[in-house]
Amino acid sequence: MAPALAGAGEYQESLLRYRRLMEADAENSELINNFAWTLMESGDKAAAEATFRRALAIDPKSERAAVNLGLLLARQNRDDDAFAVLSTSIGEAAAHHNLGVVAIDMGDEQRAKHHFAKSAASSQTPKTSHDFLAALDTKDTSIR
Length: 144
Hints:
Elements: H1 2-7, H2 11-24, H3 29-42, H4 45-58, H5 63-75, H6 79-90, H7 92-105, H8 109-120, H9 127-137
């Protein structure tokens, strides 16, 4: 029920339900990750960051928590911090790709180009990094 409430924009009720669930299962990193996501969506970025980090402390291999934390940091223009978290979890090329996508969403073409170029330089780059880079070079950012 907590995810459905969050999806409907009922963040406070969703957070309350997550807290109740976590009382019974305090070490469930996926539950904590979902709680952190809802905190982020509700606008409480500081609490979301701390909670994503808590999920990672419980399960350092949680790709979902690492990616979510990295995206949160990137949306705060903390690319170095975001890259450190993302690259450890999903690799450098994918980390730069994700940072490029966030930069496009934020309307920062120069930052996006920088990250897509870094991603494209890797042999493990996602194909779409090249597509995004080409679109940015032609000013067509509708490729999202």
